[in-house]
Amino acid sequence: MATVGCGGEPEDRISLVTAAGTVTVDGEARGDIKLTFSPVKTGATDIRPPIGATVGADGKFSITTYEPGDGAAPGQYNVTMTAGSGTAAADPSVDPAAMMAAMSGGGAGGTTAPFSIAIPKDGATDLKVELVSQKAAPAKNGGGLMLGQ
Length: 149
Fold this sequence. Notes:
By secondary structure, the protein is mainly beta. It has one domain: Immunoglobulin-like (Sandwich). The protein contains 2 helices and 9 strands. The chain has helices at residues 87-90, 96-103, and strands at residues 19-25, 28-29, 33-39, 51-55, 60-62, 75-83, 115-119, 124-132, 144-148. Strands 1, 2, 5, 8 and 9 form a 5-stranded mixed beta sheet that branches. The protein has a 4-stranded antiparallel beta sheet with strand order 4-3-6-7.
């Protein structure tokens, strides 16, 4: 008798590398954010699953694929940010999700339009999402975004 499943067992898992970083707004750590990473598919054999991370109060995040903080498969990902219900939601001028939605033409709050970030083959612990708020850069039409590693 054959067993059919949808994966998830250790032998079915793809290889992961460490993937972690920080989110800052105006140079200060910002938490209360959820990040969702959707793989930019490179072909029919690209089996990387969507992954996520919750940004802590210190602005740090560790990407989760199967288990908390286990990392990600290397490659390019589209990233969306969703604000939590705490400080970020209370002041839209410093809410990363609201800033990114305004920059991309979307509405404040909710989920932002995706931006892209690369997870290198050797992993990275210094991925950066750096945002500039409307308060710090009012002439820049809704703030700005800098990505790096």
